[in-house]
Specification:
The chain has 12 helices and 15 strands. By secondary structure, it is α+β, with helices and mostly antiparallel strands. It has a 4-stranded antiparallel β-sheet. It has a 4-stranded antiparallel β-sheet with strand order 4-6-5-8.
């Protein structure tokens, strides 16, 4: 199959929780580039980062959702997301370094790259895949992540490695950022290296541009892509080997343990939290236990409470593939403790995550005994019997008891900053008014506060998200 067999993408007008609309990916991108009136660049909008074939079209048209898509994908542009929380000059310097390395390493001209100010806290860099013409594949997005991470390492910059989900929504060119009111504005390389104030001034208005056409190729880019593909193949083989060694039983990954202990850096925190939740979900881990294990480290890594809950919820859902897991009759339990009844065909259903993102609702795996999860945790924390305990001639190791920590204490009294914008959620994680809320926080807050512990601020101070 060739790139021409992958013409489809999706478009979102408004927040990312809005409907995914099937589009011709190339035409939609060109419309935003040209500031076509049909693109409505004055609104918040997103386009899919990857392109898809007929199977994706069938899924989106039949279900109205991208959830559960596992087919092939492709991209005409490989995107890099460069930002530094609260430090826009640093993000600008990193974007400049990344662009310079891309031009030098792959012999690309400055006008063959797509460089954007994102409209808020960072920059986006687009590298044309025509430089090496990669083949579409089911692992294209995973290879893209390794390729991008390698180039970022060479440039000694940090990128957001969590933007390479197969159905990732990426902010559309020239669209308006809802919080800053600034546009995702294309920049010439000279503008990127110029004064930051000038970039912010440019971003006040959209501007049409011509999408570059690249005819030359780069042997180095092709080699880097092959190296990234080899890493993905190694990861898949190692995962299969671990499962075979455990007779198909799930294994607690060391990256999961590392996240619980240490959290993650900014560029990897979304991806590693999601991955840890998927791994716990393979054990049939309850949502309450997953939150208890992952939430504190995720918040310490700088994620907002709603992002933490969304990633955990989506990760637990993604762990239970109906094609691989047996069906159970018990309903799922939501992160808020509510019961979620499964639809008749859970494989194609979807639900809204606590943060508004679409999360696939899948039939959960049969739940192992609670001790199975504890035993895996104990083993990786060094509490398991010594390796020779499995030998028939070795004396039996003393039994060890691994208990879960007691429930966390009541959080300290909230101290929102002056002028804070408050956010309220009901018992099912939906935005609501202060009078109906189950928990509340404020934009930039580190945690949610239960109404049972602390009453919410007055309605005159807040708004619903």
């Amino acid at each position: 199959m060739t790139a021409s067999d992958f013409p489809y993408g999706f478009r979102i007008v408004g927040k990312t929780c809005e409907a995914r609309r099937l589009v011709d990916a190339g035409a939609a991108f060109a419309a935003y580039a040209a500031c076509d009136s049909r693109a409505q660049v004055e609104r918040e909008a997103y386009l899919s980062a990857f392109r898809f074939g007929a199977d994706f079209r069938e899924l989106l048209e039949s279900t109205g959702s991208t959830a559960g898509y596992t087919g092939l994908c492709f991209a005409s542009w490989l995107w890099f997301d460069v930002d530094a929380e609260g430090d826009l000059p640093r993000a600008q310097a990193d974007a400049e370094s990344l662009a310079e390395v891309a031009m030098t390493r792959y012999q690309a001209a400055a006008d063959e790259l797509l460089i954007f100010f994102s409209g808020s806290k960072g920059f986006h860099l687009g590298l044309p895949t025509a430089l090496w013409s990669p083949a579409p594949s089911a692992d294209f997005h995973r290879i893209a992540r390794h390729f991008a991470a390698n180039l970022a390492t060479v440039a000694a910059v940090t990128i957001d490695a969590g933007v390479y989900d197969k159905v990732r929504a990426f902010r559309a060119p020239n669209s308006k950022h809802p919080k800053t009111g600034l546009c995702k504005r294309r920049l010439a390389f000279a503008e990127l290296t110029g004064p930051l104030a000038a970039i912010l001034e440019l971003a006040k208005t959209p501007a049409p541009f011509t999408v570059p056409t690249v005819a030359k190729t780069s042997d180095q880019a092709a080699a880097d892509w092959q190296g990234a593909a080899a890493l993905v193949a190694q990861e898949s083989e190692a995962k299969a080997a671990r499962r075979a060694a455990g007779n198909g039983a799930p294994t607690l990954n060391r990256s999961t343990l590392a996240f619980i202990r240490e959290g993650a850096h900014q560029g990897d925190r979304h991806r590693l939290l999601f991955s840890a939740a998927v791994n716990l979900g393979e054990f049939g881990c309850s949502p309450a236990l997953a939150v208890a294990l992952l939430e504190e480290s995720a918040l310490d890594s700088g994620l907002a409470p709603k992002d933490v809950r969304r990633q955990i919820e989506c990760g637990l859902s993604a762990a239970g593939s109906p094609s691989q897991q047996a069906t159970v009759e018990s309903p799922q339990i939501g992160l808020d403790g509510s019961t979620v009844q499964e639809p008749p065909q859970a494989a194609v259903g979807d639900s809204r995550g606590l943060g508004g993102q679409t999360c696939q609702q899948l039939t959960p795996a049969p739940l192992p005994a609670a001790g199975d999860v504890q035993a895996e945790l104990a083993k990786l924390w060094g509490s398991a019997p010594a390796p020779n305990a499995d030998r028939s001639d070795a004396p039996p190791a003393p039994a060890r008891k691994c208990e879960l920590a007691p429930p966390p204490p009541k959080p300290a009294a909230p101290t929102p900053p002056a002028g804070a914008t408050f956010v309220y959620q009901d018992g099912k994680g939906r935005a609501c008014s202060p009078s109906d809320c189950h928990c509340w926080t404020w934009e930039g807050g580190r945690q949610w506060y239960r109404v049972a512990d602390y009453p919410p601020p007055g309605a005159e101070k807040g708004r619903t998200p």
